[in-house]
Design a protein that fits this description.
Number of strands of chain A: 0
Largest interface: A-B, 32 and 33 residues
Number of helices of chain A: 10
Radius of gyration of chain A: 18 Å
Shape of chain A: elongated
Helix content of chain A: over 70%
Oligomer: homodimer
Strand content of chain A: under 5%
CATH class of the largest domain in chain A: Mainly Alpha
Mean pLDDT of chain A: 95
Order of helices and strands of chain A: HHHHHHHHHH
CATH architecture of the largest domain in chain A: Orthogonal Bundle
Chain lengths: 185, 185
DNA sequence: GAGCTAAGCGGACCGTGGTCCGTATGGCTT
DNA sequence: AAGCCATACGGACCACGGTCCGCTTAGCTC
């Protein structure tokens, strides 16, 4: 990547972050970001592909931390704790991660529906599948993982907390319950 | 509703159905429907609110039939069979319903993500909640229903069958497994 | 440092969903 | 039959995501 491209990339990310901070995620239009970074609109698209790509780039740092925490962090989230315990912690961590970035993720989702195969989800599926197997769950663990991870969804989280008035605590308890039901033999 | 409005409504629905049949769901743009019905674009929006509304109207008949089948149809889907058996049948019926209208539903979904509260989903949640209680499942049945219904999602179905190459049979088996795990005590 | 070329840039342009508002008319009242 | 007005119409208009392509420039080569 050429120097000017790298510079523009960081300028765009900074401008985008500033926009979100000052005016909310809804004002994060591609044109506004371009203008705020004093750059052409085409440049934004070349750097990030599309709106979802830009948002993913914005969340990248947080996503890495989150991912590391369950892949190699301390127990009970990371390795060292029994698999079911890790699964419980994973769901809670994920719900909180989603809640923290809810605003941004929701404005990205329209595109992401089609992108149910985007990288973060893949990682979650793989992780849950591994934990289920480790826990000795038999049957179609891959599909079971898909079902479980579907519960850990921003849109669902948003719907249940905002529209249906459920607390995050309740969702977390729901996850514990779900894991317990699925893993007991 | 005035007579001309009613006439335009049916003309629009016919035009939309024709468009989908002839050129696929992707060509179902609001402007194309308006043109095909020889009507102004504004009229389409007034009648159906937005694109999702139009698509829901298009699927309304099928949705009613589907809904009736599990609310008052013959067992094991309808009343008469034991609740767990009905739950199993419900999932299979829903997966097939979704698969049948996949194309149309997918092009509507972008909007529908925000609309996790749209009527059909409500009905499904209510139904599953009732069956879980009837089956003697204790705990947060409402939330458990949300988790189960999240598995019955067009976008997920599409992803798993097209992108991951799973068969519909496998998804149905996965539902049976899920129900078994959740309801056993 | 001149010349070359791939990489990058930017903004005009397009399609689509959705809004708005001035105009037309169905159909009720008298 | 005439008058009235709520209802409905239609298309110009807007915002935004995304594409395209002719122009610019970083930075390597000689």
């Amino acid at each position: 990547m050429r120097a000017d491209a790298a510079r523009n990339r960081t300028r765009l990310l900074e401008a985008a972050a500033r926009l979100v901070a000052e005016r909310g995620a809804e004002c994060l239009t591609m044109e506004a970001v371009a203008a705020a970074a004093s750059v052409g609109k085409g440049t934004v698209f070349r750097r990030f592909g599309d709106r979802t790509g830009l948002i993913m780039a914005l969340l990248d740092r947080s996503e890495r931390l989150y991912q590391e925490s369950f892949l190699s962090g301390p127990p009970p989230l990371g390795p060292g704790a029994p698999p079911v315990r890790r699964l419980e912690a994973f769901g809670v961590a994920t719900l909180r991660h989603l809640a923290a970035h809810r605003e941004l993720l929701l404005t990205a989702e329209p595109e992401a529906c089609r992108r149910l195969d985007f990288a973060p989800r893949h990682a979650r599926i793989a992780h849950v599948t591994a934990l289920l197997r480790e826990a000795g769950v038999d049957g179609d663990t891959e599909l079971l993982a898909e079902a479980l991870v579907s519960y850990l969804d921003v849109a669902l989280l948003h719907h249940l907390t905002e529209r249906r008035g459920m607390s995050l605590d309740r969702l977390e308890a729901g996850w514990h319950d779900l894991v317990a039901r699925v893993t007991r033999d």
